Amino acid sequence: MKLHPMIAALRRHKAGVVLIALQIALTLAIVCNAVFIIGQRIERVNRPTGLVEDNLMLVTQSWVGAPSGDQPGDVEKLDSLLQADLAALRAMPDVESVVPINSLPLLNSSWTGSVALKPGSDLRAGNARSVYYFGDEHLLKTLGLKLVAGRGFTAADVRNRGFRDSGTPAVIIVTKALADKLYPKGDALGKAIYLDGGSSPSTIIGEVERLQAPSTGSWVNGFLWNATIEPFRLNANFSRYAIRTKPGRLQAVMHAVPDVLYGVSRMRVLDDDSVKSFAQIRQEAYRSDVGMAILMGVVCLILLGVTAAGIVGLTSFWVGQRHRQIGVRRALGARKIDILHYFQMENLLISGAGALIGLGLAIGLNMLLMKHFEMDRLPVLYVLAGIVAVMALGQGAVFAPARRASNVPPVVATRSA
Amino acid sequence: MFAYYFELALRSLKRSRGLTLLMVLAIGFGVAASMTTYSVFRAVSGDPIPWKSSKLFVPQIDMWGPKARDPNGDPPDAMDYTDAMALMRAHRARYQSAMYQISPSVVPANASKHPINVSGHAVFSEFFPMVDVPFKYGAGWTADDDTQRSAVAVISSKLNDKLFGGQNSVGRTLDIEGKDYRVVGVTDHWNPQPRFFDVVNTGGFTDGAEDVFLPFNRAIDVGMPNNGNTNCNEVPKESGFVGLQHSSCVWMAYMVQLDDAAAVQAYREYLDGYARDQQKAGRFGWAPNNRLRDVPAWLDAEHVVPSDTKVSLLVALGLLVVCLVNTAGLLLAKFLRRSSEIGVRRALGAQRSAIYAQFLTEAGIVGLAGGVLGLLLTGVGVASVGWVMPKDIASLARLDVSLLAITLLVAVVATMLAGLYPTFRASRVQPAWQLKSN
Amino acid sequence: MLKMTHLSKVYRTEVVETYALRDFNIDVKEGEFVAVTGPSGSGKTTFLTIAGLLETFTGGQYHLDGIEVSQLDDNARSKIRNEKIGFIFQAFNLIPDLNVFDNVEVPLRYRGMKAPERKERIMGALERVGLASRAKHYPAELSGGQQQRVAIARALAGSPRLLLADEPTGNLDTQMARGVMELLEEIHREGATIVMVTHDPELAARAQRNVHIIDGQVVDLAEDPRFHAHVVEARQGQGRS
């Protein structure tokens, strides 16, 4: 099939060709970026936190009229309230383990700082930024963290500390990511590091494989996997307890916890948001990501549908317009398949041109999004896949009108226009 | 004549139902996607206090120095206790208030009920007139209450309903964290979004309520801790909440009202003078680097409009453009298919303007139908926006008359724009054309 | 009524200039019935489209009803077409989407006529052509002769002073053609000026005057009885154009 006469024919429908090519180009540009956004969000949502998330829940509560922590003896009073709660929770039959903790991955409440290899450096300098988790010897077991080197905390390692007080632990556990950042040779275990520009050392006694930072905001992206675990029970007028239940008993424990805690003391606040399964925390944290993915998906579907329908509409019009011409071609010996191929080839030409323009637009749109909205660079693979997709879409859409064209009988040629 | 074109357009659209449906669907979906995302964008980018947002300013003081500035060279976006109190004492603005977020527990008088957590702010008396807090009963407290550290409180009507059954509770007492406070005012429904007076601690949009306001000095006295973000440049030297107050950590919001350009200029000079004094005193080792932004500029600088909202709007507008290009193509095909009719009409004396009117009417009707479909779909979209947007933002998007009007207008105008080129082509059809039938 | 002097029409392409009409002169008086004949490609149709203000010309002058039309803009030309000229096309050119009534209504609409007057004129015109009972029918439901009569009714409804017909019977069989011709003659008797392009000598013979066009120029043989024989011979030599 010769392209030259086909291009000449297309010139006669310049405006229609330009519009459909433009539409394909815009579709490609938007779909590539939208699918890329979907891919990124899915990847984000699917990254493991490092926790064993099943049968895990979190309780957040506060004591009414509790000491502020500023008076002598306040911290010890707060600690005894905390210990009483822990004892009651650990005594629940369906509970496997409980840890008092300041936050959890995906929870929007974080404590961040910096760690340094040398003492007394500036708080903001350090060798790496890190998030802090505070908990007792039950932390690893309760969260289901995987220890890859060293040991976990023992009861002897654990101290208590006022929420707003400073204090440096003698021993810490870090994530492998943080350990490798500080000691790229992999010999972090047993080394001493300094927290928040402090002057007293903390020794790394264990490494966990993975533990994600709290918060899903973009500000933690630089140190998302850098976590330091300190053996402290933090004492404030509020507390958080991560609870691992026996398999299948999550709902029962969630239901029973408020009464157990009210049983310890009525002077506390527990509301609708106080008891959450980790699944709920995950859902809330990624709600906007999942939503964005759904929205982009809907937009893509509408786009592809509209564009396919547009191709069907315009091609049908052209087929109708060239009805007689097709009849003449058939009378002159063209086979049905030749007519079909003609329209398929024509579409390939148009969508090819559209895809070429779309390639530029896709990259342009991506650059715009990168500049203003913290997007990453669009991988070439997405664009190539997008081009293949719109070409396939074009071929799919053109098939029905093209087949109708191929069914025009040669006798049409003998009739007057 | 319009009635004639209208009738002709309906006839023509009826004749090619499939094509018409296709165009209406494209416009409907395109407009609905744009309008749904626009409704969210509108909700989050609106001015929360349009009547005086240009008079309300957020001062920033560079108490941390060059190393801690953000990439734009901006100082911290919150205040430390020392500087906030110095600004309060100087009292250079018409109104001013330092404030911090609190989340105390309230113990109901009825002993059989569990204590509840409420959220709110510790503020100064000038806060209420400054941000125009509406009152259902009573009013804010006085400047005397500030200095005397009175145990008074302003509560929301929602909390008033819960605790006092909605009655006028002014003068009644309330147990907050085990201490008695006298209610001096009950706010009327008040939920400004974004929370322009404390963006740093609320993130701008929040589904939390402002249930209680307590005098700042009183809250500090009783050691009521802050419930928002605390950002430190160095580890506090002392422990506890008192240690936080003595530290350079930032954890407070600050707002001033300045009524005219002269007042703004004077306040800028005051801030620079203050920073220079601190420099002389050796507390700041750097030249003044203050900021003073009005509310719109402040909301912009804090990026309160989530980037997802903007990206969604951008992508949805792109979708609308594609739908319009699609419609332009289909209208072109549809109009040119009727070249013979146009030729005959022209021969029979139709002026170009008559052809324009006829075909633009047709495009307009497609737009109107698309707009009506778009309205329905926008309704569905806004109702289900909670599925795809964070709760605090989704709850702000709502369907109102202006959104409905914009939806219809956008659909009709955009479709007529899309129909402009096809109509132009139609109007160029020569009247002579059809005569040459041989 | 219709007067062209030294009129020319040139079609230009990148490579050639083609004269469709060259030093073309014709004068049709008010109330005349003129038949225009000529071989295929002689410029008959070009003459008619220019006469009907469907196309512009290159040089010379054209006075229609005393107005020199070459300087008129598109809107003024539309107005003249609408008010003074009636068209009858070989291919009828009815609008398929509109029924008989609505088709006849088209020129009246563009004249901005009020509905009652429109209705009166449409029904009057349809009665003239004997199709009043078919007002609600669509063109596709009518025979060729009926369609052409609708087209004539459409031309008549606006009471044009000048009726231009392009092979009005070209697509009709003999019987139908005769009916249409009788209608035209009747209209002519009532005072309309008619210019009809045809290659049918029998039809041409029924006109008051014959104008023959060859190579874009007029050969006026109105009073020459030999002309008819000449045309018949020419036709037999060429077949249908």
Automatic annotation (TrEMBL), chain C:
PANTHER family in alphabetical order: ABC TRANSPORTER ATP-BINDING PROTEIN YTRE, IMPORT ATP-BINDING PROTEIN
Family matches, as InterPro entries: AAA+_ATPase, ABC_transporter-like_ATP-bd, ABC_transporter-like_CS, ABC_transpr_LolD-like, MacB-like_ATP-bd, P-loop_NTPase
Gene Ontology CC terms: plasma membrane; transmembrane transporter complex
Alphabetized UniProt keyword annotations: ATP-binding, Nucleotide-binding, Transport
Top-level taxonomic group: Bacteria
Domain ABC transporter: 2-240
Assigned protein family: Belongs to the ABC transporter superfamily. Macrolide exporter (TC 3.A.1.122) family.
MF terms in GO: ATP binding; ATP hydrolysis activity; transmembrane transporter activity
CDD domains: ABC_MJ0796_LolCDE_FtsE (cd03255)
Organism: Dyella thiooxydans
Record Pfam families: ABC_tran
Entry-linked PROSITE patterns: ABC_TRANSPORTER_1, ABC_TRANSPORTER_2
Record-given protein name: ABC transporter
